[in-house]
Specification:
The protein is α/β, with parallel strands linked by helices. The protein contains three helices and seven strands. It has a single domain, classed as LD-carboxypeptidase A C-terminal domain-like (Glucose Oxidase, domain 1), CATH 3.50.30.60. Helix 3 links the parallel strand 4 and strand 5. The chain is globular.
């Protein structure tokens, strides 16, 4: 089980609710690169995203492309890991502001603050396993994952 950490910047994205589904995703740059040829269908899945040292505009373009191409249609929930090495835009927009704008419109439970990615004290996560995202409790439970 992974527990949301309040000290992770993405923790502020957490909504409420629960979602069950296959855990799919990982690094946002890799997910976007796979769109159209190797990205599996995400209908009914819990999408896990994290990123490191990208420009905010690049994150915006990737999320916009994935959403407009229909890759987010039917998602059960979104698990957000570490977004590290990001500086606010010249207008003061932070990566968490941008993520909130993109993810809230999906209307699914969102759990942020997960220790997954390229930050400090990260944890590995088995992809493809059935998972339970409980945004209200702040947990992501994957059967193979030890506490």
């Amino acid at each position: 089980m992974l527990v949301s950490r309040p000290d992770e910047s993405t923790a502020v994205l957490t909504t409420g609710g629960q979602a069950r589904g296959r855990l799919v995703g990982g690094n946002l740059d890799t997910i976007a690169a796979c769109a159209g040829w190797a990205l599996p269908r995400l209908e009914g899945a819990i999408l896990l995203i994290e990123a490191v040292a990208m420009e905010i505009g690049q994150v915006d373009r990737q999320l916009t492309m994935l959403r407009k191409a229909g890759h987010f249609d039917g998602l059960a929930g979104v698990a957000v890991g570490q977004f590290t090495g990001f500086k606010p835009s010249s207008g003061g927009l932070t990566v968490t502001d941008l993520l909130r704008d993109h993810l809230e419109m999906l209307g699914v439970p969102i759990l942020g603050g997960l220790p997954v990615g390229h930050g400090e004290d990260w944890r590995p996560v088995p992809h493809g396993a059935q998972a339970l995202l409980d945004a209200s409790a702040g947990t992501l439970t994957v059967p193979w994952l030890r506490p």
